[in-house]
Amino acid sequence: MEVRGSVFIVTGGASGLGRATAEVLSEAGAQVAVWDIAAEAGAAVAQAVGGTFYPVDVTDEQAVAMAVEAVVRQYGGLQGVVNCAGVGVAARVLGRRAPHPLDLFERTVRVNAVGTFNVIRWAARAISQGAARNADGERGVIINTASIAAYDGQIGQAAYAASKGAVVGMTLPIARELAAFGIRVVAIAPGVFDTPMLGMLPDAARHSLAAQVPFPSRLGQPREYGLLARHIVENPMINGAVIRLDGALRMPPR
Question: Which CATH code is given to the segment(s) 7-244?
């Protein structure tokens, strides 16, 4: 599908992978709706890419439904969504003082998995109502953010790995269902990327993670995620797949 002239929602667009994706899609000629709960940063990104900012909590059913309607009303339709909104946590199942907090596990799954699905279902509804964009009958593309933690999660990543494993698991069945509407569904599983989430780690830990990447031996750049998202949109045969973007990294236990 052509990026130019298409309308995309990018969740988590205020920073990191979402911001880079909004920039890449805008540069390629797309109209971008930036969604985030960080109002000031999100509005700044939207202004920079010539788009519109929507203060949306992806776990809020009504807010997501209303925001999708607002995007369609403003731009005349919707052709894609890139789900980058998410949270990262670290906690052991058997902590020193108590077991893993259940509310922390629930929140992680709610934002990363339930929030992603919430956006998918409302966006898919809007995309399915649009006209075909090419001879294949394609109406749109949905790209979700998983993680290599879904495959080789480290100690302390039970909640995060479970939430991203859910994103991996839902990719194929949703792609098969939405094929009837000309909508492709793909997930990207990034490795260690230089995002604000990783920026919370000490420099020594960041350097250690970068050194573990076989090649290129560095942290991934958010723009590299955005470029892959653009390629997925433009390549019609990529569907129902989860693509690792990790420099051949396989995470050790800790």
Answer: 3.40.50.720
Catalytic, out of 54, 75, 160, 225: 160
Find the DSSP H helices in the chain: 16-27, 39-48, 61-75, 102-109, 115-128, 149-152, 158-178, 196-199, 203-212, 222-234
Residue type, 160: Y
Give the model confidence (pLDDT) of 129-184 as tens digits: 999 999 999 999 999 999 999 999 999 999 999 999 999 999 999 999 999 999 99
- Residue ranges per domain, the chain? 7-244
Question: Model confidence over 1-51: pLDDT tens digits?
Answer: 999 999 999 999 999 999 999 999 999 999 999 999 999 999 999 999 999
Question: In terms of Cα–Cα distance, which of 220, 171, 167, 229 is closest to 197?
Answer: 220
Q: How many angstroms separate the CA atoms of 130 and 80, rounded? A: 11
* Residue 145 bridge partners (DSSP): 188
| Residue 222 preceded by cis peptide, ω within 30 | no
pTM for this model (two decimals): 0.95
Are 85 and 12 in contact by the 8 Å Cβ rule? The answer is yes
Q: Which residue has 């894609």 as its token pair?
A: 80
Residues 132 and 130: their CA atoms lie apart, in Å, by 7
CA distance linking residue 105 with residue 97, whole number of Å: 17
In the numeric block, the tokens 């394609």 are attached to 138
Determine contact, residues 16/45, Cβ cutoff 8 Å.
no
In the residue annotation, 160 being an active-site residue is answered as yes
